[in-house]
Amino acid sequence: MRAPRLNDPDLPLADIMTHWPKTIPVFIRRRMLCVGCLVSPIHTVADACAEYQLDEDMFLEELRQAAGLS
User: Fold this and answer.
1) Angle, nearest 10°, between helix axes 45-52 and 56-67?
2) Are 23 and 63 in contact (CB under 8 A)?
3) Minimal CA–CA distance to 13: which of 50, 39, 5?
4) Which of 10, 34, 39, 70 could form a disulfide bond with 64, CB atoms 3.0-4.6 angstroms apart?
5) 40-51: per-residue pLDDT in tens?
6) Nearest-angstrom CA–CA distance, 13 and 60
7) pLDDT for the residue 1
8) Is 13 left (phi over 0), alpha (psi -120 to 50) or beta?
9) Which of 34, 45, 59, 56 has its CA nearest to residue 10?
10) How many Å is the maximal CA-CA distance in the chain?
11) DUF1858 domain: from which residue to which, for each copy (predicted)?
């Protein structure tokens, strides 16, 4: 099985937080309820950004930096 890609548009938030736990503070800083949320196994970055009215590219870059991928 290959490693997930953070920029995969279908990657669920739960997988992001599992594979890159250093991204969790990004969600917490933005007061997002994604950490521990029951829908995080099916919600994507796009879903969360739509829900919280965030710029998806900027948020994804924050996640990349936190994960050490940028």
Assistant:
1) 120
2) yes
3) 39
4) 70
5) 999 999 999 999
6) 11
7) 62
8) alpha
9) 45
10) 34
11) 8-59
